[in-house]
Design a protein that fits this description.
This protein has about 650 residues and is an all-alpha fold. The protein is built from 35 helices and no strands.
């Protein structure tokens, strides 16, 4: 080959490779489209109840496709639905063997075990259920397997003549039934397990069994039966459960007596969260909350949960006495659940006293000891304020930047943004542009199958596969029109992330969706529609039929009497607070009414929307404050303080996302 021929061959080779890539890509797209069409057709047959055609159609999916495990699972379900149980068992087992890492493999094994049980093949069922129980211990299928393993032993015991062997087999069944009730006290098989335990023990229950059964009856909302079996158990272990059950039965006197005794004598026999719950119920049912707290303070200072009583006492103590109260919590319970908030209150009080160096030390101590708590964003923000006071402006900016970087969606990130931009009016925008809610993840090699299932609208299978991903569960609920449930799921999922994603991440749209915005704008008048949207999100999560425990109704959670007063003022005769347009119309008129009283300041209007305008006017008269944030930290109603933070947090996120 001469030197002139080499460049020509190289050019030919390059063009050949490019051609092959184009052809391969084209064929791949055709193949993907064909696969999606096949799966879609199979799904339509399945939904229509034509399981024979569904089975055959899903079988056409190539073994090389990432959709093959989902298609095989659908085949097994089609066989099960059409009564071909043995073939379904075989298909489930083949699926589990071929795709051991498929998310539905535990369910496939369980389904095969359940079908084996239903057709009387107990040996095969026992083998499959044991595998699920031992290998997939954290799954709900492991729990359900315990029930079936118990039933297999129970049935086996019925046919045994030898008394010793019979008792031994019955005890094996009891172990399984107890395990099921412990793991799923309110589960679908709970009542059957209760009945079997009582039958196998001839109603002569051990105290431990009485306790398990009582907790199960409580979970099944049968509070009278729960009361009966709690009375047969050991009080020191069960006292917090009895308190909760007494609350449901309205046995308030007994509830309070047992809570006081529990804190004096039994607190270390209960989990801390259950002790906190008992304390909450005690104060909820006591005629005077302040007197109730004082009574609990006299129980046992060494009690598990006593720091919670102290914390509640601090919250209900006059402000000039609170600092010492919080010091008692922080220094006596430094590892407790309320130590971080107690230290934050000490820190803020030092700022109020203009003891900036002391405040700086307390803030640094908080960030060192409690770097990731609910109060951390507030500490970072106020540390910046402290350094501003000390004229260390670069350090102050670094703290503002830290809030924005580490807690970008937080109320204090919004405040940090306003401070760094030197913006006094927090109302930055009066309109936003809607963006479509999309599947929260873009396709990659790890999630290829679930993105395709989302495209194919196979929501039921997607829900099962991604049961632990709240963002996907949120998206599915959104597609079903369950907007409130969707938003709450996404909110909780985002709260669980320690590192927040970038503002362009599609998951944010599920956390802060836009609903009824057109209707809000039509009714907003002089109100900022984005503020109203934020208020609706926090009030009802876009549920037009929401009803609160105190009787507030609809999207903007209006009290009927308030709505009637506003309607009369504006000549509105007929309205239905469950109708979005009516609710938004009257809600906006009420917001405007508050705005007129409070001189047009949205900050105070939002506080008044929750706490009442009389309370806000009173606070304005007697609180010593330099700015809105200083005012907010001193608002005596914790609920109202948090309410404003939540609404303005929503506003901040709507304007930054949209």
């Amino acid at each position: 080959m001469n030197s002139k021929q080499k460049p020509i061959l190289i050019i030919i080779l390059i063009f050949t490779i490019i051609g092959l890539v184009i052809v391969t890509s084209f064929n791949s797209k055709i193949s993907l489209k064909k696969t999606l069409n096949i799966y879609s057709a199979g799904l339509e047959y399945y939904k229509a109840g034509n399981y024979t055609k569904a089975y055959k159609t899903f079988g056409k999916i190539s073994s090389l496709s990432t959709l093959k495990p989902a298609a095989m699972y659908r085949q097994a379900r089609a066989l099960e639905q059409s009564g071909h149980f043995r073939r379904a068992i075989l298909t489930y087992n083949i699926l589990a063997l071929r795709y051991p890492n498929f998310q539905l493999t535990p369910k496939s094994k369980y389904n095969a075990g359940k079908l084996s049980y239903d057709i009387g093949n107990y040996n095969q069922a026992k083998k499959l259920f044991k595998e699920v129980s031992n290998k997939y211990t954290e799954s709900e299928y492991a729990t359900a397997s315990e029930y079936y393993l118990g039933m297999i032993e129970y049935k086996k015991a019925k046919s045994i003549q030898n008394e010793t062997q019979k008792i031994f087999t019955e005890e094996k069944a009891l172990i399984r039934f107890r395990q099921y009730l412990s793991d799923a006290p309110g589960g679908r098989y709970a009542q059957t397990c209760i009945n079997k335990i009582k039958e196998l023990q001839n109603n002569k229950l051990k105290k431990e069994d009485s306790y398990i059964i009582a907790k199960s009856y409580y979970a099944l909302y049968d509070y009278k039966s729960a009361y009966k079996y709690f009375s047969q158990t050991y009080t020191p272990k069960a006292w917090t459960d009895i308190v909760k059950n007494d609350y449901e039965l309205q046995n308030y006197e007994n509830l309070r007596t047992l809570t006081e005794r529990g804190l004096r004598e039994y607190s270390y026999n209960a989990e801390q969260k259950d002790v906190y719950k008992a304390i909450d119920l005690y104060l909820k049912t006591t005629p005077n909350k302040i007197e109730g707290i004082k009574k609990l303070l006299d129980t046992n200072k060494k009690a598990n949960g006593y720091d919670y009583v102290l914390y509640l006492n601090c919250k209900n103590t006059p402000r000039n006495e609170q600092t010492q109260c919080y010091k008692d919590i922080y220094y006596n319970y430094p590892n407790g659940q309320f130590a971080a908030d107690a230290l934050y209150n000490m820190f803020y009080d030092a700022i109020k006293q203009k003891e900036y160096l002391y405040a700086k030390n307390l803030g640094e101590e908080h960030l060192k000891l409690y770097p990731h708590t609910k109060s951390t964003p507030a500490v970072l923000f106020w540390m910046a304020k402290v350094y501003d006071k000390l004229k260390h402006y670069n350090t102050a900016k670094s703290y503002y930047d830290k809030v924005l970087k580490e807690y970008p969606d937080d109320y204090y990130a919004f405040q940090a943004y306003l401070e760094t931009k030197r913006i006094e009016n927090p109302i930055l925008k009066t309109d936003i542009t809607e963006k479509k809610i999309m599947f929260p993840y873009k396709m990659n090699s790890n999630n290829d199958m679930i993105v395709k299932l989302a495209m194919l609208e196979d929501y039921s299978l997607l829900k099962d596969i991604c049961e632990k991903d709240k963002f996907i569960q949120s998206w599915i609920e959104y597609q079903k029109g369950e907007y409130a449930k969707s938003a709450v799921l996404a909110r909780d999922a985002m709260e669980e992330l320690s590192d927040k994603p970038s503002v362009s991440d599609l998951r944010w749209r599920l956390v802060y969706p836009i609903h009824y915005y057109k209707e809000i704008k039509q009714n907003s008048g002089n109100n900022n529609p984005v503020i109203i949207l934020s208020l609706v999100r926090e009030e009802s999560y876009f549920n037009p039929t929401a009803r609160s425990s105190v009787g507030a109704l609809g999207l903007m959670q209006l009290m009927p009497q308030t709505a009637n007063d506003i309607a009369d003022r504006n000549g509105i005769k007929d309205f239905d607070l469950y109708k979005p347009m009516d609710n938004l119309k009257i809600g906006n008129l009420y917001y405007s009414y508050l705005k007129n009283i409070l001189h047009g300041k949205d900050f105070f209007v939002i506080l008044a929307y929750n706490g009442g305008f009389n309370a806000v006017n009173k606070w304005k008269d007697y609180l010593d404050y330099e700015c809105n944030n200083d005012f907010l930290e001193q608002v005596p109603y914790q609920e109202t303080q948090n309410y404003l933070k939540k609404v303005m947090r929503s506003y901040w996120n709507y304007i930054r996302l949209y």
